[in-house]
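Researcher: Next sequence.
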Amino acid sequence: MGNRLTKITTRTGDGGTTGLGDGSRVAKTSARIAAIGDVDECNSVIGVLLSCDISPSIRATLLDIQHSLFDLGGELSIPGFTAVKPEHVQRLEDATQAINKDLPALKDFILPGGSAATAHCHVARTVARRAERSVLHLAEFEPVNETARIYLNRLSDLLFVMARGINRDAGVADVLWDKARSK
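Model: Next structure:
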């Protein structure tokens, strides 16, 4: 791997194509590259969230997620390759339940806000939703591992619950949507 990354500027993409992990080339505007880019962006915004003051347990969960998202990007870059497995999804579901069990019941819609870390977590959630849509779009044209799509769906669920947990840990109330303001 080190030898492959010693030359970052290759000029091979100057014509509007990029190489996949299997050696094939595709348009940079392809659905596959859009999905890879959205997964990469999700990983990046989780990196921003990790720069915030968050609990060690949430930090550990997010680091695990970053590794899984990197694996997912690799999976998407090699058509037919599978890296994301049901165990990855199960870890997200377990983390969601663990955080959610200590949160007060949600009786109103919440707005993405509260602490700075929570706001970053909500950005990560919305990017995870976009990545899921991109993977679904790719699946309209090419076979995609269904578990990868499910993983992104569960990730956005976890990030929503995690945002509430981060607010709780910071002593900040969730920002509730005020239906009366709409009138």
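Model: The chain has a mean pLDDT of 91. The longest strand covers residues 17-19.
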